[in-house]
């Protein structure tokens, strides 16, 4: 097996996995911080309960993001040493800044928050959470800035065959980075919002199923309580309905932001990586129409096999240029341009092994880019629609008794996850065959691009990478089962699961003043 | 002399020392959970001494790695690709340890907690070994060719130095972890780790002392020998303090010992960052492996401003959680059940 393929599968699996965890951290973090802020400001216990409950789920997920994040940093050097040598002068700086400016803050202050309940003064304790959340948001920026440099290298000169950093501010203010970062953050809010919505819906449904909450003739909720079930008092209802509404609103804000920033990003992409966008459309010939459905063998990478069935005239031009008439270049037009600019074959370098001198295929896997693009948009739109419907359906204070709607609400949690995974797969696969895409815009520097096939570690044996690929994949799968299991366990337990004091069936007689408010 | 690359060599040395001093006791506590804690309550006492701080400490490793990537990309690329398999083990160890710390208390059964305890202990052991082997090999050399790529297959790194380095860091972590537990707990754990320190630290510190001395006899300079003297004085004071029951001073002494010892190694091997055992001409040095001056300058400014801030708020964290922990502080386990009616 080709080491490039193994290394790519490994990077793809570990990155997509990592990015299932990260958006939940990014989306849930600010929401929990706002909950705690509301508690500190109003003293209303509802917000304390919300903070404790959602904070626990946040932490269960957070740790997995930490654990899988370090794999990302190590594997550049381990599996992609040629890449690291080529880009190190530029690419390492944002990674190191991420550690120094963001990840230290995030990890240290989160530790303070977890163990600081009842130990730090209330406001200081709140500040530790805000700092941790801020750390995660800043952290994402540096990582996206590094990735965006691979999509669109700026701020450099080309010296002795390597890009050399000349302007760090250009790297950090790269328009690609601004677009991708805002897109990612709004997407993360969508993920966090849908998570709140789905679980709160389940809890409200459970209260109705247990006949705690009922509805009157007008369909309005009549809140009840059941003292035999831990935590099911009247205040419990307000925790869930508030969480549900917050979730829906956060999700709607997120999806609106995603649409706006996505449009901006697409316009940049048509300029910066025209081939990616042509492949996203499976657009072989130049044209103006957006393909809604295409049939044929996209995997054949052969334009004669693709038949566009439904097309919206002018929409593609609108996405690319903001008008309805400018033709967008198709794959057939672009390939010769790329061959002319970047060559037809890989160099005859012995460190490339079997790949030396191979012909370069400039067309990304169209089946992946075409469907990746559509799944991203489709799942995002679906989740946005669901959030609006959910808000309307719960306007009278609770959810319908239907079990199917409850299941749908829980299932809806997955939609924005799927959208963000599809988005990453699209943008990374769409950059192929480059690992560092050339910058064709006026600021671009000749020579600064790298083929993925030239980027892997020449000294590493394919079987070593297979070992790590299999090991990491199996461990990740096992841990996914554990994480989802724990999330579900705590989600079902409700607030009493995280606030034992609400559980009236147990009497905590051994309460001394000095116990740890939180302990592992 | 290359000023900026030299500054960055010192900076990366400092990041690794920060990692060893801070994460050293986290890993040590993790390993002690395998055999020092005799009951669930005792193991929880141990885990909660590092609970608020271990994640912040692990960031020192990430930052050391990323700073190496930024300042010495060729060093980073050659070292990480050459040590592919041991680093896979380090990653798996880090993953298991992190997840275990967070998840061990979230299950009801004894099997659940025992599994995660075991995973914390073994994870810490594997990480300590891998990091030790990697650090030792970057000082003693690896078979890298002109391009900096490994020659000789996936296990070519596995030699006496790798094992010595691995054992050195494991031994140090056990001692440092014991010193930390003696300082941060009360009750049986405090007694046991205090005794462990007096009885076993001379044995467990032998490999790290051997590694330091081997490097000194090969490359020692006046500066590096001076650091060795500091390390020796510190470790003797640490042992005497441990015997006298002065836990704070013992812990500090061991921290100074590893800082000076690692500092002596870095000072001795300078300016080589990764020697090639094939041909000295292929060795990576601070001048041929570094990034350009602009990048190093940017990194210097960022680090100069933010590293002191990091140290300040991390120090504050230790102040907030300065109290000793004992079994009476550990809350009873709370069984999490679904809030569902019958």
- What is the number of independent domains of chain B? 1
The largest contact between protein chains, plus residue counts on each side, is: A-B, 99 and 88 residues
Order of helices and strands of chain A, N to C? Answer: HHHHEEHHEEHHEEHHHHHEEH
Structural class of chain A: mainly alpha
Question: What is the general shape of chain A?
Answer: globular
- Strands ordered across the widest β-sheet of chain B: 1-2
How many whole angstroms does the radius of gyration of chain A measure? 25 Å
The total beta strand count of chain B reads 2
Determine the N-to-C terminus distance of chain B: 77 Å
What's the tally of helices of chain B?
A: 12
Contiguous runs where pLDDT drops below 50 for at least 5 residues of chain B: none
User: What is Rg of chain B?
Assistant: 21 Å
Write the layout of secondary structure elements.
The complex is a heterodimer of chains A (520) and B (342).
Chain A: H1 3-42, H2 45-79, H3 81-116, H4 122-151, E1 156-159, E2 162-165, H5 168-172, H6 175-209, E3 214-215, E4 221-222, H7 234-272, H8 274-280, E5 290-296, E6 306-312, H9 315-321, H10 331-342, H11 366-393, H12 403-412, H13 414-429, E7 434-436, E8 450-451, H14 462-493
Antiparallel strand pairs in A: 1-2, 3-4, 5-6, 7-8
Helix pairs in contact in A: 1-2, 1-4, 1-6, 1-13, 1-14, 2-3, 2-7, 2-14, 3-4, 4-6, 6-7, 6-12, 6-13, 7-8, 7-11, 8-11, 11-13
Chain B: H1 3-35, H2 40-50, H3 54-71, H4 73-82, H5 84-103, H6 110-140, H7 160-184, H8 188-204, H9 206-219, H10 222-243, H11 247-269, E1 272-274, E2 284-285, H12 293-320
Antiparallel strand pairs in B: 1-2
Would you write up a description of this structure?
The complex is a heterodimer of chains A (520) and B (342). Chain A has 520 residues and is mainly alpha-helical. Chain A has a domain at 3-212 and 228-271 and 441-499. Helix content of chain A is 64%, strand content 6%. In chain A, the strands form four sheets. In chain A, strands 1-2 form a two-stranded antiparallel sheet. In chain A, strands 3-4 form a two-stranded antiparallel sheet. Chain A starts with a helix and ends in a 27-residue tail after the last helix. The mean pLDDT of chain A is 91. Chain B has one domain. Chain B is mainly α and 342 residues long. Helix content of chain B is 74%, strand content 1%. Chain B is built from twelve helices and two strands; from the N terminus they run H-H-H-H-H-H-H-H-H-H-H-E-E-H. The chains are: A mainly alpha (520), B mainly alpha (342).
